[in-house]
Amino acid sequence: MAKPARIAEVRAEHLLTELLTSQGWSVEHPPKGELLRQGEYRDHPHLLDIFKGKSKSSGGGDGMPEALLVDENLQPLAVVEVKGSEKDLPKAIDEVTNNYGTWCVEAGYTPLAIALAGTTETSFGLRVFKWSKNKWLTVTYDGNPINWIPNRPDLEHLRTPNTLAELRPSVPPVAVLATRADEINRLLREANITDAQRPAIVGSIMLALWKSKGQIRRDPEYILGDINEASQKAFWTAEKASIADSLRVPIANKDLAKGAVRIVSILERLGVTVLSAETDYLGQLYETFFTYVGGNTIGQIFTPRHMTAFMAELADVQRDDDVLDPACGTGGFLIAAMNRIQRRGKLSRAQMIEIIKKHLVGFEVEPITAALCIANMVLRGDGSTRVHQGSCFTSKKFEAGKANIVLMNPPFPHESTDKPPEEFIARALEGLKTRGLFVAIVPQSLLGKHPKQQWRDDILREHTLSGVITLPDELFQPFAAATTAILILEKGIPHPNDRRVFFARVENDGFKLKKGVRIPREGDELPTILDAYRNKKTIPGISGLSVLDRDRSFAPGAYIPARPLSEAEVTAGVLALIRNRTAFTTLHAAEIVNLRREASSYRAMKKSPIPSAPTSKTIGGYFDIFYGQKSLHNKEKLLLGTSLVISSSGVDNGCYGFFDLETLIEPPFVTVPSTGSIAVAHVQELPCGVTDDCLIMLPKKDVPHELLYVAAAVIRSEAWRFSYGRKATPDRISGFPLPVGKELIECVRVYMERAAQVEHLALEHAEDAIDEQIARKRRLQEKENPGRLIGGDMLEKRLAELE
What is the pLDDT of residues 548-561, one digit of tens each? Predict the structure, then answer.
């Protein structure tokens, strides 16, 4: 019997690994990971001392717990004992608490004690204990022992002295969810489940696991039927029987029945069976899974949960507020409102259920998404009675003038027949009371583009604009590449002309895109912007308060004061510019040599007024700013030649090409595209023509050459302010602050000199090649027709033949 027992223990060890990775633990050996397996602690004297000579056997050897979880300093965070059979859980508990855990405490450590019994193929038992007041306490949730291993932050919290042994479940890291979602997606794909079907199937399994508390038969013959039955019961309990069939698994799919056994196991490891009102777990897990099922499979773009929470804070949602979302998706905004109310009021579950039923109203036209939203609310206490499947435009349950707050993200239109966001905004405003607050994500195209001017005028005629906050461009990736902003309105009060509006820009929302998944990063600006909004603060580069300009633009770029760049930021920008220049010079070395040889033939373009001395430490103080040459407006008529033409391109130093052009502009100067790659500035070191879709910045008297690169870097850093609805103009760039310190100028000079050496070699090589080509042409001429010149076309033809 020893061999089967050992096999069970190995499987139990695999189960331990799975439970740990499900909660974000690294199961590699330190220093890369956090897990020391049986016996590995002997390599570390301070750990060996804990168990030395304390074997359970009569031999008096060393004690050997199954595993230790350790921190970066190899201090024990948790001690683990594993048994191969579920019936041996009491034995595992006794050994990990009375022996291994107690020995750790006697040695001066305070780890958790974890007992695990069972395998991945069968049910298992798990208990977690914390040391408190000279005894081991069972870690519980809602009074019941938890059936998951706490993640690192939760474990650290439990180890803190005088904390309770009660633990609410928390969502595992995004990377963990992504890995599990990838596996679920593979299992569904192998079962021939289409992309569009997968969200409903996963939602159904999640809801069924929660409703049944995991009591679903794992036999492939019964598992799908049990899932449908438990899922339907959850909808019936919530009085939503009409939509229950939207979340079903196809019971005749035998491949799915086999895969469902593993899917159920995965979701159990992620804690689905213990979901409650404290955790918006379904929405987060669903959204992560959604990334792996082909993106926007059911025509919805879901708002990230940290953003819905931020908007609930902007709206200052209170306990008695009626909150409306006319296009609620999976319920993210309703959940955010609920979470804020509960967090601030410390409400019981019963109180929260009543609030959900009375105060949270949502409409969703797409049946599967509506069912997922209702499921999301069901998981918070069956309080889904005011979430409706149907259109907010046609539903008889839509009530005008009832809500205090609207939180929403209107659907992004996919076809010309789809309703534009303006119609959803208008409908949402109908649902608000006078002086009700509207907080919604809208496309940035509504903020500044001329075709939307009438819409903005209409909004201001009837409502007050309280705030606009632009959001990161990658916020909705990988689902969609959308530029968006938060629009805040007060209903029913015409906008006063002297009203100061809050404007802000979110550059860092605490996440970044990596390999198709947005993962956390440092520097989250949302708390700072929330504080600025509440306290009406101006923070250069981040927020500002201003009356609307004469264009009545809603674009924050028009109102937020520029932030002076640090020397490191300027240096990085200057390096990018010089690299661009060097790449351009290397690529076009031959054309540049020809341009320089014919430079005496061009006529320098004169500009007025005569440049004056610097007057302030701004772009306008050091540069005179003009538009480009109107004669180059129609570029298609240009003939090829040797003169450089610069346009609104954001690459190749703005080079449009080389053409036959006599009137050029004397360098050096800066070009700033006002269309195309707006505000992606370049420094021009060659005589060139500049099209009229660019601005030209001519340095004033005595301005250091190096400052052109500093100015271009500053303008590039402010490119976020501009769009096709708000182009770069002389007035809009002239006030940007310009650092002019001597150390910075000297640093830029060094970069320029180094780049010039590289460029000189490229140009020297090109010049030698051109001279050799000319010499070859002359030799060919003498050989073919002594004393007679050959026409250009014939010469090129003969050269080609010789080569």
Answer: 998 889 999 999 99
Q: Find where tokens 């029945």 sit.
A: 257
Any idea of the CA torsion for 734, 736, 740, 745, to the nearest 10 degrees?
A: -90
Q: How far apart are CA 637 and CA 84, in angstroms?
A: 82
Is pTM, for the whole model, over 0.70?
A: yes
The pLDDT-based confidence of 615 (bands split at 50, 70, 90) is: confident
Indicate if the pLDDT at residue 522 is higher than 70: yes
Q: How many alpha carbons lie under 13 Å from residue 227 in its C-beta half-sphere?
A: 26
Q: How many Å apart are CA 132 and CA 383, to the nearest integer?
A: 37
Are the CB atoms for 26 and 34 separated by under 8 Å? yes
In this prediction, residues 396-409 reach a mean pLDDT of 96
Give me the sheet containing 135-138, strands edge to edge. Answer: 35-37, 67-70, 76-83, 112-118, 124-132, 135-138
Strands 663-664 and 603-604: parallel
Q: Which residues contact 40 (CB under 8 A, 6 or more apart)?
A: 29
Helix and strand element counts for the chain (H, E): 25, 28
Q: Strands, E, within 569-654: which ranges?
A: 603-604, 623-627, 640-646
The residue written with tokens 């480009």 in the block is 628
Is 269 within 8 Å of 184 (Cβ atoms)? no
Cα–Cα nearest to 118, from 83, 149, 66? 83
**pLDDT one-digit tens code per residue, 486-500:** 999 999 999 999 999
